[in-house]
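Let us practice reading a record.
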Amino acid sequence: MTKPFFSICIAAYNAQPYIGECLGSIAAQDCRDFEVVIVDDGSAVPLTLDEGMRASFPSCMLKRTANGGPYAARQAAFDIATGEVVLCVDADDGLRDPADLSKIKRAFEAGADIVLFNASSSERVPTRMFDFSALGEGGPVEEDSVWDLYTKGYSLNSLWCKAFKRTLYSKGEKARPRLLMAEDRLQSLEVMRDASSYWLIDEPLYFYRPNPASTTNAGYNPEYFAQACYVEKEVVAFMTGHDVPLEGWARYFLAYTSSALLGVRYNRSLDFAARRDAYAAARGQSVVELAFEHCPVRSLAKVDALRLRLLSDGRYAALDVSMLPWRIGSGLKQLARKRR
């Protein structure tokens, strides 16, 4: 049998309410040269496909695994995939327009190893989620520009904002811990580091559905920061091996650290003792120390600089209190919006 051009890989966890819309957006594509691989990552109730879904995708592969997190679920899907190009779609998201796959395919036919594209969180208004202006207006992209954007920010973290040749995936290269945070950034690094040609479609081809039950919208667990640090060590190792300066990365990561501290502060399940332990654990991460070495804290936004100075000095009680004004201001803004 002829292998498909695309392998559309879907990692699903408790996604039964959304999978129909996700698959519907794929079924609507005018390019039919694809297979669908779904990995149910140990959902509490096993994912099922109704007769309509099965009819639309008669060769759809659905595999159930023990819950290992999205990184492991995607890796399992990649192991099954047979297409020339892999495209990841989260089970609660979808493709925006029936011409999306055709546009991506033409870019690969022009010689790309990886195709980057934008996303929107609105089904009606095609607003762009990411600022890709540093990469140009579209078409071929310089490799150095891609790495500069990746290492200095979050715009290229998401695996679902890129499609890549399946040969870039290294099966079972290294055992990974269970990752619920920053797994996209790690998998992006793994497939990008051996690519030599990039193409940009700066259009919102992907629909990102805000899901209150997702990890990124749930209460921030201190373990998430430890997982992010694990990933950043991989990023730094790559940068060091390729003589990429660390200053821009350090600025990005320290700003991320400040946001993580805020997330810990307002996790309602944590008392002060637990938060203090989380602050101390963050301060003890070697990759945080490395970032401090390569980026003057004074060069960051004032609120980030304050938090990071208190963290660096081990003044955890003061750090905890310093974030109260943000909470009060956020509450006032929410109240003002409700009154409108």
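A brief commentary: The chain is about 45% helix and 15% strand.
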